[in-house]
Amino acid sequence: MSKLRTTLRNPVRVFLILAAFIVVAGIVIERGTDEFTLQTAVGQTNDTLQTSEDFQHLDRANRAFINLVTRTRPAVVQVTTKTQRTNSQQPSNPFGDDFYRFFFGPESNPQTQPEPVRGLGSGVIVREDGYILTNNHVIDGADDITVILANGREYEAELVGSDPAERNGGGSDIALIKIDENELPSLQFGDSDALEVGEWVIAIGSPLGFSQSVTRGIVSAKGRDEFSGRIRYSDFIQTDAPINRGNSGGALVNIRGELVGINTLITTGGISMGNIGLGFAIPSNMVQQLMPDLIEKGKVVRGWLGVYMGAVDHDLADKLQFESPRGVVVRRVINDSPAEKAGIQPRDIILEFDGKTVQDVQHMMHTVAGTKVGKSVKLTVLRGGNQEKELTVKLAERTAEVVGRSEQRMFRTESEELFAGIRVRNLTPEVAERYGYASDESGVVVIEVAESSEAEKEGIRPGYLIQEMEWMPIDNLETYSKLVAKLKKENKEKVLLYVKSPDGRGGGYVTVKVSTSDR
After folding, report:
1. Among 248, 337, 406, 415, the one annotated catalytic
2. 506: which of 39, 179, 386, 403 is 20 to 30 A away, CA to CA?
3. pLDDT tens for residues 484-493?
C-alpha cells in the first residue's frame, strides 16, 4: 500500500500509467475471436468516411472539375513557330522579361548564316472550321506557324489577322490564325464582364512545351491597365492560376466551360522567370469585339479622337459636386485632330460620349476605339467647372502614322534629331505617367524609330527609355545630345545602349548600328 502511495505521488509515474491505460483502452478484444482491433484516431473507418456528407460534397466538386477539364481541354492547342533570321535580328530579351522571353530561348552565339528561331505558345479553337485565337507576340514575324491539336495531329496554320501591341498605333496583342480542318472541338465565349473577383477559373496551355497542362485559381482582379505603356488597349483579368512561358495564347475558362480570357503575360519578381501568382488574360468580350475586323480586314480598325486625357480624381469630383469620380480631363488637344475640329479644348471634362456616361480614362479610350470610323458622335463636356456644352465630333482612324505625326508634332521642339534611327525627348512627369515609369527614373524617351532601321530590328519602340549610351549615364536630353555629338566625332559604327521597356519591367544592353549619314 505504501508503495502504491509512493507511486501515486510521483507525477512521472502517474503519467506513464495513464498513457498505458489509454493505449490498452484503445484496443478492443472481440469475444469469440483471436483478433485485436485498433480504434482509428478519427473514430471511423475509411468506409464510413467515404459515405459521409462532407466527403460526398468534396467528391462532387472534384468530379465537376474533372468533367470541366475533359470538356474544354481538346479545344486548346500548342502553337510552334519558326523564323528565319540572323542572331542579330533575334528579339532582344532586355525588352520585357515577362513578355518577349515568354517564347524564345536563350540567345545563341552570333552566326553569320541565318538560323531558324523557334517559338512556343498556345492557342484556343473558337470556331469548329479552324479559327484559332492566340497572342500576336507568339506568332509575330514567324515564317512558319504549326498547330498541334490535343490528339497530336499537326497542321500548318495561316495568319488571318493580328493586332500588335506596339505597332499600328498600339493594339491588344491578339492574333487570329486558321488551319484547314472542320468539325473541330471549340470553346464558346463567356461574358467576361460578368466575372466576379474570387470566381474559380482554370488555365489551359503549353507551359515550357508541356502541352495540355491545366492549372486552377481564382479571378484576382479585373480591369488591370498597368501595362498600357506596352499594350495600349489593355483591360486585363488578373488570376493566380499558374501561367508560365508557353501559356500565352491559351485559355482562361470559367466553371461553366466558357472561354473568358486569353492568357497573355505574367509579372515576376525580377529574379525568377517563373509564375508568382500574377497572371493576366485579355477579356473574352474584348476579343469578340475585335474578331470581325481580324477576319474581314486582317487588322483592327479603331476610332481616333485626338486628345491626351487625365483622370477625374476624388478631389476634383468633390469640387464639381459629383457623387463619385467620372469623366476624363482633356490635358492636350492634338493639332488638326477630330477633337480640335469639334471644338474640344484643354481642361474640358468629357462627361458623355455617344450617349454613354464616361467612367474613366480606360473606359473612354476603349469606347472611342470601338466606335466606327467616320461616325459623327455627340459628346458632352464641362467647361470652366460649370458650363456644359454639347459638341459633335467625326472620328478618324487611329493608325501608326496618325499617332506618330501627332507625337512628333507635339514633341518636335523639345526632341533630338534622329541618331541611329532613334529620336528621343526628355522624360517629363507627364511622359513618365503615360508609359508607367517611376517618378525617380532618369533618361530620355524614344518618340520615333525609323522604319527598317537597326534600332527597329533590335526591338526598340516608341516609349522605351534610354538610360545609358556607351556606358555613360544619360540624365536628360542635354547629356544625350552631348554624347551623340561626341560619338559622331569618333565616327562610331555601333553604339551600346541600356534601355528599359514601358512600365519599367525589362531592361538591358543592346547594340545598334549607326548609319553612315549619322556619322
Report:
1. 248
2. 403
3. 888 888 888 8
